[in-house]
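ok here's Aquaporin family protein:
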Amino acid sequence: MDSQQLPRFQVTALPPDASIAEAWRTHWREYLMEATQTGVLLFCIGLFAALLYSGAAFQLPQAMRPFAMGAGVSVATILLIRSRFGRRTGAHLNPAVTLAYSYLRRVHRWDAAFYVVCQFLGAVSGMWLARSVLGDRLAYPPVCYAVTTPGSEGEVIAFLAEWSLSALLMSIVLFTANHKTLVRYAPFAVGLLTIFYYGFCASLSGFSVNPARSFASAVFAWIWHGLWIYLVAPVGGALSAAALYARWMGRDHVYCAKVFHDTRSTCPFRCSFLELHGEDSESGG
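and the structure:
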């Protein structure tokens, strides 16, 4: 489809010299939406962990529980990305994703700062709500607020796992979200990867790839062992994937900072999404 035939959407990107006050006035709705979505994600993580691992609800074989956990979190993530809020904010839900897009110059520095703060606040709020609803089933072992700690292989393996998995996640987001044919499937690619992570990799690091998610669990479980891994490795992995993508494809081939872009929702980023369609149609791709 020619870019001229696509419906236009409003872009509210900040100018490069925007102040922090201007950023808040312009995008406070997006910041609160991002906090809300991250909170819902953490509530779902707490809910599924309590249902599957506390023994109070579902009695699944031990080997099946990680896959069931991944499936639950996957469905929640897809719904959030494709929700009205997700279509507007880009549904990063993860400071590592936001910082990677900031590195790629698609997110203004003040937007990135507010997004990250709101992701942490939203994550803590979501886990607090889960604790309020689920009580002891969320607090006691083996659930422990779904806290992420290094597996039996140690901190080095956990660090490498979180770095690699975060790099793979960001690579898939960038590849699908910036391809005319695949862009509509980006949420499902993230969802499938989530099932894979939980099913096959959770034993290495507990599966985080999200600093806000691990921080929220650590706050309520009061277990801080290895937290630095979950703050550093996901960001490093996402940034390394962004750097490789920019070197391979060029920064001009990052059309927006949304995980899933439609042509109706307001976009708060430096957005050239319509160019994706125009470029592909002209090249016959």
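+1. The chain has one domain: 18-260.
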